[in-house]
Design brief:
Layout (H helix, E strand, L loop, with lengths): L10 E4 L9 H28 L6 H18 L2 H8 L5 E3 H34 L4 H4 L2 H27 L8 E2 L6 H5 L7 H35 L3 H30 L4 H28 L2 H22 L1
Parallel strand pairs: 1-3
Antiparallel strand pairs: 1-2
Helix pairs in contact: 1-2, 1-3, 1-10, 1-11, 2-4, 2-10, 4-6, 4-8, 4-9, 6-8, 8-9, 9-10
Length: 317
């Protein structure tokens, strides 16, 4: 009887990103530029790896996967942000929220697994260089990539199914600028105990598990580098993993900051800033990090950009 008095929620109202209505146009332009940078930068990385044979190695195969994940992660959030910045009432349909949840969480989970696989790749390259080609063969790399995408997708799919069994009524204000599990579960008028257990298990196995595996890999890498006699050898060995280490540091620092800080009214605004980091800023920086310090990527980029310029010129004619 009590359940029948509830009106089922068909859309959610988002709190928004900034409380500055007079600056919406400025924020729209900024986020649009960053989104274009994410899509273009990561797309160029993928094309460069595909067309340039010297980049057909396990490391760059996983970097191409990471670039695709970054595009999916940002595309799940930013287009809706841009739409809401131009509207007074910031809403998202129930179905749109579910789709956003699925794409975002599956891409974040996949990225966690990818970073772990990439740290293992760097471990084999530095600690077992003579066996690298044999250990990181093409078949294994494909199996690892498929497994990473499958685990990230299945984990998110199970969590989404558990959300769909919940009832949402009356309360429909999301205190964030996109849909995420904690904010959605807080609006449910039915028990979320099973959902919270699932999220806890995902945090343990996906977040903590991958973080510990990455730490272990880099412990072995550091020990191996310290054993190298020449300073040039140490520098060369460290340069092969420095880009990945920087990406890992950026990604995990934002995730850890989000979960270790106490919940308060002030932390809501901080959470939004951190969310911008891992959904927009980090995907923008990743292609820059992997391209600036790599000569082969720069060569591939020089091959792509003139080709694109000529193609655009012919179309204009």
């Amino acid at each position: 009887m009590e359940h029948s008095n509830h009106t089922r929620v068909t859309e959610f109202i988002m709190q928004g990103l900034f409380d500055h209505p007079h600056h919406q146009g400025l924020f729209f332009g900024l986020f649009l530029c960053l989104y274009i940078a994410v899509v273009m930068g990561n797309s160029l990385i993928i094309v460069a790896i595909v067309i340039h044979p010297p980049l057909h190695t396990p490391m760059y195969f996983f970097i191409a996967n990471l670039a695709l994940v970054d595009i999916l992660c940002t595309s799940s959030v930013v287009p809706k942000i841009l739409e809401n910045l131009m509207q007074e009432k910031k809403t998202i349909s129930f179905g749109g929220c579910i789709i956003q949840l699925f794409v975002l969480t599956s891409s974040l989970g996949t990225e966690l697994l990818l970073l772990t696989v990439m740290s293992y790749d760097r471990y084999v390259a530095i600690c077992h260089p003579l066996h690298y080609v044999k250990l990181m063969n093409k078949e294994l790399c494909i199996h690892l990539a498929v497994s990473v995408w499958a685990v990230g997708t299945i984990s998110s799919f199970v969590s989404i199914l558990l959300v769909l069994r919940l009832d949402f009524c009356r309360l429909n204000l999301i205190q964030h600028f996109f849909c995420e599990f904690p904010t959605i579960l807080a609006l449910s008028c039915s028990s979320t105990y099973v959902n919270e257990i699932m999220i806890f298990m995902a945090d343990i196995f996906l977040a903590m598990g991958n973080f510990l595996l990455t730490i272990v890999s880099y412990c072995f890498i550091i020990i191996t580098i310290l054993k190298i006699q020449s300073s040039k050898g140490k520098q060369k060995a460290f340069s092969t993993c420095s880009s990945h280490l920087l990406v890992v540091t950026l990604y995990y620092s934002t995730i850890i900051y989000t979960y270790i800080q106490p919940t308060s009214s002030n932390s809501l605004d901080k959470n939004k800033m951190v969310a911008i980091m891992y959904t927009l800023v980090t995907p923008t920086l990743n292609p820059v990090i992997y391209s600036l310090r790599n000569k082969e990527v720069k060569v591939a980029m020089k091959r792509i950009l003139p080709f694109m310029h000529v193609k655009c010129f012919r179309k204009s004619l």
